[in-house]
Each structure stands twice: as structure tokens, then as C-alpha cells.
Amino acid sequence: MKHFLKETDFTENEIRGIFSHAYDLKQSRSAIQSDILLGQTWGLLFYKQSTRTRVSFEVGINELGGHALMLDQGGMQIGRGESIHDTSKVLSRYLHGLVIRTFGQKIIEEFAEHATIPVVNALTDLVHPCQIYADCLTIAEKLGDPRNPFASLAGKKLTFLGDTACNMANSWILAGALFGMKISLAG
Asked: How deeply is 119 buried, as exposed, middle or buried, from its count of CB atoms within 10 A (0-12, 13-18, 19+)?
């Protein structure tokens, strides 16, 4: 079991495997139904609402053969004082994985610390790793080999325009260091 809390959680070989698998799934998306998550239920716990993130994770889990279960903190005990420790333990008994979109990075790290299932960071105020991996896959598709983002992205220059004190700027900095890209921030 491996958590995905920030861009640097995987080894270079694991990242190559993730990108290669993601590219293959993207290419065959309309052709076949995958069974990678067959029989699995993954929870989506969103402290921060989002249309695109929610839809992309729900569709992705369903297309991989699993079932996505939307969890609303307001409708759970965690919204009324149950600790993250207890909630993480309870959810681990019922779910096969947990996707969290929240404010503080500490929240998702605490869930991961106590979970016995994989925890995926769908966004925190600090980083947005799934978005960055998706963006880097798209760039690698256009500029080289999407199965080897290290070769495709190394030495490339990317400029981020916008809030330079946000999760996306932080994630681009991490991606730049990870893939050997030259990142410029302007905001």
C-alpha cells in the first residue's frame, strides 16, 4: 500500500510505471472497460468542493471498475468532533482507498498516518499532485515519450503565471525538481 500525498512520494521507476499505465489507459479509454479496481469502493472526502476534481475521480474510479462513494464531512461524525485518527480507522474498515481534497496538508498526512488503505491527495493548500502529474503527462505526450516523463521533460522550460504562493506554484516547483524542468513563476 502506498499513499500519494505529494509529487515526490514515488521513486523514478514507480513514476515511469504510473505515467506509462496512465498513458495506456488514456489511449484505450473508449475501447475497453478496465477491471483494475473491480470490487473496490473508494471514498471521496471533500472538505473543499470541486466540480472537475469530483467528476474526474468519480468517473476514473468507475471506469477502472470500482465504485466511488462521495463522503461529505458535514454529514459525517468528523464534522461534529470525531477525530481524524478515529475516522481514518473506521473508513479503512469499509473502503479500499480514500481520496481527500482538503485545506491543510497536515489533515491528509494525519489520515495517511492512521489509515490501512491508500490515501490520495486530490488537493491541499500546499500541493496539488494529481493535477501536476496529469499536466506533466500531457506535456510529455506533446514533447516526447509520455511513458518516460524524465526524458521528455528534462531541460524543458515552463512558466507559471498566477498566484505564486499557492498549491499549483508549489507543485510546479516540486515537478521541476523531480523531472529536471526549469520552472519560472510570475505573479
From this structure: buried
